Amino acid sequence: MTALLKLPTWFDDGLCAQTDPELFFPEKGGSTKDAKAICLACPIRVRCGDYALSHDERWGVWGGLSERERRRLRNNRHLVQPAA
Asked: What does pTM read for this prediction?
């Protein structure tokens, strides 16, 4: 059984809530251009991107970033984190 993702209520303010969700989850090799264009105008873009990074979202466009772009950010964050 697949669990449904429970998103914070502020996601309702996102432009993606008014758009076909499949646009934000393209098939492998599909374009993310249209989804990113919507994200650029979205009032919660930064919050959405932070959410995706902190919850390790591995699929789709979140906050205007693709999976690959978020992975690169996560990897770079690990490089600049001071050792404990």
From this structure: 0.80
CA distances from 1 to 4, 16 (A): 10, 26
**Alpha carbons 32 and 26: distance in angstroms, whole number:** 7
DSSP E strands in the chain: the ranges are none
Q: Which helix (H) or strand (E) holds 68?
A: helix 67-80
Q: Would the pLDDT of 63 be above 50? A: yes
Residue matched to tokens 């499949």: 22
CA angle 77, 82, 84 (to 5 degrees): 125
Alpha carbon distance 1, 67 (integer Å): 24
